[in-house]
Amino acid sequence: MGLLVRLELRRSRWFWLVWIACLWLILPATVSKYEVLMPDPVSARATAASLEHNVTMRAMLGPPFDLLRAGPFTMWRVGTFVAAAAAMMAALGLIRATRAEEEEGRTELLRSGAIGRHAPLAAGLLVSTLGTLVLGLLIAASMAKAAPPASGALAVGLGIALTGLVFVGVAAVAVQLTESARAARFIAMSVLGGAYLVRAVADGSPADSPLVALQWVSPLEWAALTRPYVDERWWVLLLPLALSLLLIGLAVALENRRDLGAGLRPAGLGPATAAPGLRGAWSLAARLDRGAVIGWTVAVVICGIAFGSLGNGMDQMLAANPQLADMMRKMGGGVQQLKDAFYVALVGIMATVLAMLALQLWSRLRHEEQTGGAEALLATGTSRLRLAASHLVPALVVPTVLLALTGALMALPAAMANGDPGFVATVTGGALALAPGIWLVVGIVVLVHGWAGRSRAVAWIGPAVVGWTTFVVWIGPLLDLPGWLQNLQLFGHLPHLPGAPMTWTAVVVQTLVAAALIVVGLVGYRRRDLTVP
């Protein structure tokens, strides 16, 4: 197994290094900005009291236990975000090391040698566990220096590391259930999204509501419930540890019950002849993307309604604290009206999330090329451009429609409460003004895919761009990054509506740049050889 561990570390070293470095730096950087947000004791107490009882902030960030010290404030402000990101890192890393390798045939080649049945899974588990533990230790060490005492820092590091370990187990089970890495990622990310939603509902509920008990159901809450820096409850860490061991044991048991290359849930053979609506590349792409689109639509509806219900009264709460109000204005692209800044900030976050959907829909083409599906289609009368367009159009249209739906649903509660139906159109228009940012990242990945289809850059450049945008949108205002650096992301130069004047120049220029990248990418796609497994 040692050989497989070294092989996986060699293949995935950049994946782990980039993830760990980015997540590690967020917490100590937040500690360094605590004095800016809480400049004096009097205002700090008033701010802490308002934040502790504000359901919006609790639902977004988690339960606050002590906001008058840098350590527990940092855990509340970014701890849950880092724990969720660590869970995503761990799940994707495990799937990358196991199901993806099995799907591409490399595991079968390795298994032809003198290695055990469970050796590839064990190697993936070991590397993924090592990655989460390294992240936890780095966080603990840096927090111990930036925000002592060491016991609180250790609780933060262990809580985040064990959250990641839970999703190592989730991913290990997911790869046994399905025969494709794409489906395994969907299962793992669905569990992660469900855990985050349960946490938000529990934290946003009144203290006397029975829904508060749901805190103990979500693995993403356990790191916060350890209460780092505030009378640490070390026994809570036994929950993620026990669940991870249970899931890993289940994954090993399930692996004994399936064949190599298959999943416990076998893919159906389907009918002998295609349905009338399944006659070409467009209908095939629609069928392949159907599950993802339905899942994302449900998630967008839930998030839009939930975020919208939190909007009423947010401006009054923020107005009581100039520092938090200033941070919200920065998250809202500099919009001065607090209510408008709130909606701009949340729409910007959702636009970044929907950019991930755009990448997912376009990446289906690469998957079809690697598995031979594209070659089979191109052997018929389907042209290269038609094949590419069948995946390109959904990647452009579906996130744009869902972005507009997000804006409408978020604005609906405020419009109903204030009797102003025009507010729905205003926020929806502001959401659509960010659509060129999604189109731009699609243009970038189409360009790379068209001219460098065999390069590893195809797999990471899109997520890297979206990841940087997510960091700037969510963490950048807290770190008070320079304005030019905050604008160096997908949505930085686009108008932030409502609240800011509509500027068509940025919208038109970014749309034209995205269109040019797509055209050049499609030209390259017509000229290059088809990517083969």
Automatic annotation (TrEMBL):
TM annotation in the entry: 12-31, 75-98, 119-141, 153-174, 186-202, 234-254, 293-311, 341-362, 392-416, 422-448, 460-479, 499-525
Secretion signal, residue range per the UniProt entry: none
Keyword terms: Membrane, Transmembrane, Transmembrane helix
Protein name: ABC transporter membrane-spanning protein
Domain of life: Bacteria
